[in-house]
Amino acid sequence: GVQLVESGGGLVQPGGSLRLSCAASGFIFSDYGMTWVRQAPGKELEWVSTISSAGFTAFYANSAKGRFTISRDNAKNTLYLQLNSLKTEDTAMYYCALDPKGAERGQGTQVTVSS
Fold first, then answer.
1. Cα separation of 96 and 5, whole Å?
2. In a 3-state reduction of DSSP, which class is residue 95?
3. Is residue 33 a contact partner of residue 53, using CB atoms and an 8 Å limit?
4. Which pLDDT belongs to residue 36?
5. End-to-end CA distance of the chain
6. d(CA 103, CA 105)
7. Residue 3 CA: distances (Å) to CA of 23, 85, 105
8. What pLDDT, on a 0 to 100 scale, did the predictor assign at position 51?
9. pLDDT score recorded for residue 16
10. Contact 111/20 with Cβ under 8 angstroms?
């Protein structure tokens, strides 16, 4: 079956950076657009970014534009999310997903932005 395993989260100060990774298996990774979603404590799941199957097209939520970069390596079946200029409001569990609503997602990696 589908497996999505996120990593790379952690505690970072405001203004800092992190690179999240998502290792995918159990499906033909290069056939699917992939998505990052996040969920902050007490809030609903929020779409962050989506990348096309070949990686040529990317879409971002307004909150992510100019600070986050989604990318993928189809040879390694891996999805990435580079997080720059992090803010306290970026604190959330970050999930990679097969669909923009995050219905099929991994277990998540925690990002905490705090001084």
1. 8
2. strand
3. yes
4. 98
5. 40
6. 6
7. 8, 30, 8
8. 98
9. 98
10. yes
Cα→Cα distances 75→28, 55, 104, Å: 11, 12, 22
3-state secondary structure 5-63: EEECCEEECCCCCEEEEEEEECCCHHHCCEEEEEECCCCCCEEEEEECCCCCCEEECCC
Best CA proximity match to 24, nearest among 48, 45, 7, 47: 7
What's the chain's length in residues?
115
pLDDT in tens, 19-75: 999 999 999 999 999 999 999 999 999 999 999 999 999 999 999 999 999 999 999
Instruction: Report the pLDDT value the prediction gives residue 105, as an integer from 0 to 100.
Output: 96
Q: Which amino acid is at 37?
A: V
Rounded to whole angstroms, the Cα distance separating 107 from 101 reads 15
Q: Return the sign of the alpha-carbon dihedral for residues 103, 104, 109, 113.
A: negative
pLDDT band for position 84 (cuts 50, 70, 90): very high
